[in-house]
Request: fold
Amino acid sequence: MNDLSNATFIMPLRIESQDRLRNIILSLSYLLNNFKTNVIIQEVDTDSKFQQYAAPELEKLVSDLTPITLVFEESQDPIFHRTRILNDMLLESKTDVVVNYDTDVIFPTNSYLKSYDMILNQGYDLVYPYGQGEWQQKVQLYPDLMSKFVQSGYKWEVLNEGEHNEKSTSDYGWAQFFNRKSYIEGGMENEEFVSYGYEDNERVYRFETLGYKVGRVDDQIFHLEHARTFNSWFSNPHIGDNKDLYDRIKTLNKEELEHYYSTVDYIKNRNGKE
Reply:
């Protein structure tokens, strides 16, 4: 078991389709069968589909589920406010490393270990555990491949064997390893971005412009493909506002960014200010 005990994976969750359910089961099984670590899941939905459907399957695949902390937030809101949910979990975390982690991704085991070491021992504030460019494998997780993956003991190499995989580009989304202190001091997730779109671009622009040490591990990312609702695609009704916000922020220099993040409402609210 690889040691990531000083890391917490924070995973916002809404299970909107069967493949989303499958993916959260597989990604958690992979994490907990390969690493000694901590996981916080914040599920925001009308009812807890994780408790009803995912947990019973995970009990068959993982010997110890105690590393998982599940926070269920009942909501009728069709909009999934991902940035706000991530900040809730970030502030609940206690470890020095925090991983903003999508429910549909898997990396080679060594990518997690390298990213973790870069944060703890090499002075990095933010690390992307995958390369930029053509490093992404879009994995169509058909039953035969899923079965082979589980039977292999969750060896990531098996995911390269999918007959319907498609190679694609990777950039700034999916997962980031953070120094927790830097993540909070740098503004956390910008809650002005709602649902899907442009928050990943803004995040890296902000942390680089503010002078934080940002790095990468040049290796593969496996994205477990899934159906997309407006909460994970450009049909998001907030997409125009998100783009406008990003276009405005990326014109700001370091001093202007510092001023913006010292006055933005969500930061003041998190700090208990009016």
